[in-house]
Each structure stands twice: as C-alpha cells, then as structure tokens.
Amino acid sequence: MAEDLQKSETWVEKDPGATSDEAVIVFDHVDMIFNIASEQLNNLKEYFIKLVRRELFFEEFKALKDVSFTIHRGEVYGVVGSNGSGKSTLLKLVAGVLEPSNGSVTVNGTIAPIIELGAGFDFELTARENVYLNGALLGYSKQFINENYERIIDFAEIRDFQDMPIKNYSSGMVARIAFAIATVTTPDILVVDEALSVGDFRFQEKCENRIKELVAHGTTLLFVSHSIEQVERVCERALWIEKGVARMQGPVLEVCEAYRQGI
Amino acid sequence: MTTSAQGDMTRSEFKKNWGVLSALVSKDFKRKYRRSVLGIVWSILNPLLMMIIMSAVFSYMFKFNIEHFPLYVILGNILFGFMSTATCTAMTSIVDSSSLIKKIRIEKAIFPVEKVIFALLNFGFSLIAAVCVMIYLQVFPSWQVLLLPVLVLFVTLFSMGLGLLISALGVFFRDVFHLWEVLITAWTYATPLFYPMDLLEPWMQQIMQFNPMYHYVAYFRDIMMYGVLPSGMEHLICLGMAVVTFLVGLLVFRKTEKKFILYV
User: Does B263 contact chain A (CB < 8 Å)?
Assistant: First the structure.
C-alpha cells in the first residue's frame, strides 16, 4: 500500500542546495480567535445597545486551534481544507497582516504575495503605471522596476497594450501582470492561492514553469487550493486543516488521501 | 513576527514606505487629471471661479466692508479647502484600501497621510490662483510671506492628525463618514471665510478662539494680505493645536490599527 502513495514523478528538479533544514515558516501552537459579537457591529447605535446589554466581547470564534507546523527552505508545501476551514486565516498570519491570539508565527525571509485583481491595481491607470504602483506596494525600488520592466511586460505578454488603461483588460491579463510582478525577483517565500486560476490554460502552464524555476532556486512555495489534484501534483508535503484544527500533516499523497476519505 | 536587524529594518522600511507614498501620490495625480482638456489648470481655475461666485454673492447680499474682499475670500477658501479635502479623502482611505490591507503587510498610516499630501499638492496649485488675485488687486505682501511654509506645516500636521483619527474611527463605525461631512459643512460656516470676524457677537468671538481653522485662516491673511507678523502667542496657539491634534490622531491610529483587518 505504501508503494501506491509514492509520487510517480517529481514535479520539479531542484538545484543542489536549494533545500535545507532551515525553517522558513514556523507556526507554534497558534490560536486565532475572532470576536464575532463585536465584528458584526457597524454603527454606533448597535455598539451602544450591545454595550448597555453587556453583550459585547462574549461570542468567540476560533478560526485556528492550536495549529503547529514547520516549513523548511525550498519546500513545496500545500494546504488543503474545505471552505471556511481556516486556510485564508492561515495565509493572513503568514503574510503578517494578522497576529495570532496565542502562540507564535515566525517567518524568515521575504514574501511575495500575488496581489489579486483589484487590490493593488488602479483600473483607470495604464498597465505601465500599474506595474510601478504594484511594484512599490511590494517594496521594489523604482530603479529595480525600471531595470526589470521589460521582463515583466514580456512575461505578462501585454507589450501591445502597455499604455492602455487596465479597465479595458480582461481579468486574465491583469492576473498575468500581477503574477509577473510578484515573481520578477526570487522571493524567499511565494504564496500562491486561488488568484492564479483566472489565467487561461497556456498561461497557467507558463506560471507553473516560472514557479518551478523559482523553487529550483530555493524559493519556498506555499500553495493553497481547493483542487486536491493540483496540490497532489505540485506539492511535496501538505497540511490538512478542518474547522481550524490541523487534522494531518505529512507527505502530500497521504494527506490528500486522508482528506478525500474525510469528506 | 520576528525581525532580525532592527536598525537595518527600519531604514529599508522607511525607503519602502516612501516608495509606496510617492507611487500613491502619483496615482492620485494621474487619476485626477487624466482625460480632462485643461488638466492641472483646473486646480487653479476652480478656486478662482469659486471666489468670483462667492465674492459676487456676498458683496451683493451683505455689503461687508472688507478691503480686497475677493482676496479675503480666496485665501480663506483655499486654506479651509485644503483641510477639508485632506480630511474627507483621508477618512475613507483605510476602508478603500481594504483589499491591500488584507493581503500585504504595509504601514497603514501611509493611506491617510498620502491623501493629506495630495491635498497639500493641490493647495500649492490653488496658491497660484491666490497670487493671480493679488496681482490683479495690486496687493503685494512683504517679508512676512516667508512664514508661509510654517503655516503650511501647521495646517498639514493638523489635517494629518484629523485624517488619522477619523480614518481609524471610520473603520469601526462607518457613521463617522456621514457625520464628518455634516461637521465640515458646519465648520465652513463657523469659520470667518467670507464674513468679517467683527460681525460676530463678542461671545461668539470668544468661542471662535477655540476654532483652529480660525487661527490658521487669520494667520494666512495676516502674512499674505495685511503684512502683519502674527504674535508669538498666536504662533504658540497654532503650533499647539497642530501638534496636539496630530499626536491624538497618531495615538488613536496606532492603538487601533492592528484591529483594522477584522473590520475593513
């Protein structure tokens, strides 16, 4: 049986030295608690009513319960789980936009998030202007973008449209720019979630090749997807979370098999 | 989150924040003037047209005895306009950039601060309009005009403080957005922008002393059209109001910013 769970082929050939035991992302007994009661309040009236009734600060919701895992340098790590299982919360903790209620999250290295459609883009501006805007948001210097501008445009295949406002672009084109900008450097950690699924088949393949290139050079890939097949194909190890609890972690095929059985 | 070299970190953080700030200002700039024939000229034309309307209406209706009334109006209007645009745009800046805040780790104060800086830029353009009026009316300021940067600093700090404060509060209570619009309108009339101060009852003049915008507008007119050097006391009041507002805004922002992501 154990034989069946072996991967038939490795997704990427890594450079020697691309992987190491150095921990890049460490979750240590992480709890993430949200206070639903106060989150539903959107105006002062509700706030005061709740305050008077002393209903404030009571209803708790644990999005993550005692989650611990470690991702090492150069690893391709998948996170699976059904809707509302805590995947996005986990990603936000990695990105550093949320802080854990208990426990600790340690991230060593630069993170390249793929900024989704609409977030780091302004639809009135041209693709060229958006490349600079998005680049600045990711922390690139202007000089760095100047030097790499051509590569970004070429990778996104938008050379003929670079001076057109992106409101006229298709969603796939915008996703291509976002991906091209995020991966123009070799980040320590690349976070890939559903944002990529907008591109067409050929571009997805291109993205996958670029991700492989980065991973071969030592980038740690954190991959979050609904598609178990994709996770199985791409990742080496995986974490399955359900209702905020880490149900299982280990080699990807075992985890995905258990996840399939579990749901 | 652990950071390794703290000193190194703050320096590169600063560089990054500066990059984001200038990218956002240039974005706003392009957005504002794209596809309008006159483009940036509107920033100069707009206060001029407003001044013509207001001075026509008010000099006809009230017959105030104010020398160089158009200049009196335009100076008050552009300075007050700077503060009101700055605070109104800063107010929604956090909520508007929710998708970014949820995705990447970024200094959140950049968003309201950027709006204030953009308003400051536009204030610079409308100053050109004021200068046009001064030339037309043959009112030339003397050396006191050199104090203009000091005043601009005061009003910028003051606006930043308010912007930080209401942008943070607005995340938790959207009521603030509606309330502020009303407040700004009330504040416009409560500041002597187009009427003389001595029109007011003595008790109203007393209350006016607590209106920071009254002090800033008076300071502005003193150095631009009356050639008067504001007193040391006046400087202290202007500085104090700016610094206190800024610190309060910054403090509230810093205390609450970690929770933004849960509410935006």
Answer: yes
The ipTM assigned to this model is 0.77
Q: Which two tokens stand for residue B53?
A: 């309307």
Contacts of A135 in chain B (CB under 8 A): 23
Q: Any chain B CB within 8 A of the CB of A98?
A: yes
Inform me whether the C-beta atom of residue A143 falls under 8 Å from chain B C-beta atoms: no
The CA distances from residue A250 to A71, A254, B62, in Å, are: 11, 7, 81
Q: Do A63 and A32 contact (CB within 8 A), yes or no?
A: yes
Contact A107 B1 (CB under 8 A): yes
Residue A105 and residue B1: Cβ atoms within 8 Å? yes
What is the reported pLDDT for B134? 92
* A23 touches B at CB < 8 Å: no
For residue A150, what pLDDT band results from cuts at 50, 70 and 90?
Answer: very high
Query: Cβ of B102 and A92 within 8 Å?
Result: yes
Residue B92: is its pLDDT beyond 90? Answer: yes
Region of B35 please: left (phi>0), alpha (psi -120 to 50) or beta. Answer: left
Q: Encode pLDDT of B68-79 as tens digits.
A: 888 999 999 999
**pLDDT (tens digit, 9 = 90+) per residue, B108-166?**
999 999 999 999 999 999 999 999 999 999 988 889 999 999 999 999 999 999 999 99
User: Is B15 an 8 Å CB contact of chain A?
Assistant: yes
Euclidean distance between CA atoms A245 and B75, whole angstroms:
62
**Exposed e or buried b per residue across B128-163, where buried means at least 16 C-beta atoms within 10 angstroms of its C-beta:** ebbeebbeeeeeebeebeebeeebbebbbbbbbbbb
Does residue B222 sit in helix, strand or coil?
A: helix
Minimal CA separation from A94 to chain B, in Å: 9
pLDDT score, position A234: 82
Six token digits for residue B96? 């508007």
